[in-house]
Amino acid sequence: MKRRDFLASSLAATGAAIGGALDPFARIAAAADDFADVKITRVVGFDLLTRRDKLVGRNSRLDVHGDRSMDRMIRISTSSGVEALGPCRAGEEQVAQLLGRPALSFFARDERRMNSPLGRRSTALWDLAGRLLEKPVYELLGGAGGERVPVYDGSIYFMDLLPQRADNWRDQLRREIDAARADGHRAVKVKIGRGKRWMERAAGDARDIEVVQLIRAHAGQDFAIGVDANNGYDLAGARRFLSAAGPLKIAFVEEMFPETVEDCLAMKAFIAEQGWQTKVADGESQRAPEAFRLFVEAAALDVLQGDMKHFGFELILAEAALAAEKPGILVAPHNWGSLLGYYMQLHVGRAIDNFYMAEHDPLKTDVLRADGYTRRDGYATVPDRPGLGLAIDEAKFADDVKINFDLRA
Ligand SMILES: [Mg+2]
C-alpha cells in the first residue's frame, strides 16, 4: 500500500471512531501507529558550510564575523526509504542511540515534543516525523501562526570599522540596505555600541546615531529599523542613544545592556514617556525558557529572544507558552550564523500566534535546496511540504560536504 493510501485508510477509520470530526492530532496518532515498523537504519553526520555575499564586521563585543559559517548536521535514513535532515550538535554516542529505533517512537504528539537521546537537538526527528506523516513541521508544532512570517535582515554590522571600508563606509551601508531590500526585506537590525570596545565612547555613540539616521534617510519611512547593542551600553547610555535616535522610529532595541527586570522596566517606562512604539527585546544568552519567567511576570520585556538552535523547537515553544501568559509579549528567536536556524524560525512563525519576526543571516549553500521558501515585502513563506521542506543536492553533497560520521544499524 502506498503511503498516501495508508494515511487515507487510517484517516477514514479515525473519522468513524470520533463521529466524523477529523481532529488533526487523532489523524496523526492513527498514522503514527501505521508507521510503527519503520526503523532508523543510518545516521550520517556532516558539516554544512555556508557563505555570505559580504564581509560582516565587528559588533560591540566581537571582532570581524567574516563571510562564512557552518551548520553541524545529521542525515537520517529509514527502513522505508524516507530520509530526513536537521542541524544537530549531539555527540556520536547520542546519535548512535537512534539506530534501530522506530522512527516515530520519540514523538510525543500531544505535548508537541520529541523525547529522544538528542534532547533539544531534535530538529531532524521533526523533519522525519513530518516526512512520514506528510505534514509540514509547523503543523506538527501547532500550526497557529499566520501564513506569512515577518522577517528581518540581521547582518548590518560595523562596516565602518573594516579597514577596507573606512573611506567609503556610508556607500557600503547604503549598498547593504539596498541588498537587504532586493533580498525581500523591509526590516533590518543594526549593530550599535561602538563605544564599548572599538571607539572612544562619545565618538562611538555619535557614529551609532549617524548610522541609524543614514539608514532612515536612505531606506525611507516604511522600512523597519531595529538596533542591537550586544550589551554595549548601560541604562543611562541607552537613554542617551534613544533620546537622539528614538524620533527616527526604532522598531525594537535589543540587548542595550545586560538585562535585569529593573533596568528593562526603566527602559520601557522611558520609551512610553516619549510616546514611541519601540519594543524592548532581549534574552539571546539565556540558556532556558525559565530564565524569562520574572521578565514575563513583570512585563519587563516586549520580545523574548531565546536562541533558535540552542533552544530547539521544544524550548522555543515553551518560551512562547510562557510569553503568552502576558498579552503583548512576543517571541523572536535569536539566530545568527545558522542557515538551518533560519528555516526553523519560519516553522515556529507558522506554528505560534505570538511570533514577532525571524532573524535572517543571509547565508547560502548549494548543497541544500529550499524550493518554496520565499522572501517578499518583508515576509517569508514556508512550503506546504512534508517535514522542513528542504532537500539535499546529492551531487553537491558528494563534492562539497565533510562527513563527520556514518553510523549504521
Ligand atoms: Mg543580538
Description:
The protein is of the alpha/beta class. It folds into two domains: 136 residues, 2-Layer Sandwich (Enolase-like, domain 1), CATH 3.30.390; 244 residues, Enolase-like C-terminal domain (TIM Barrel, Alpha-Beta Barrel), CATH 3.20.20.120. It contains 14 helices and 18 strands. Strands 6, 7, 8, 9, 10, 11, 12, 13, 15 and 16 form a ten-stranded mixed β-sheet that branches. The chain has a four-stranded antiparallel β-sheet with strand order 3-2-1-18. The protein has a two-stranded antiparallel ribbon with strand order 4-5. β15 and β16 form a beta hairpin. α1 crosses α2 and α12 runs parallel beside α13. Bound molecules: magnesium ion (MG). The site of magnesium ion has 6 residues, from loops.
How would you sum up this structure in a few lines?
The protein is α/β, with parallel strands linked by helices and 409 residues long. Helices cover 36% and strands 22% of the residues. The protein folds into 2 domains: 3-138, Enolase-like, N-terminal domain (Enolase-like, domain 1); 149-392, TIM Barrel (Alpha-Beta Barrel).
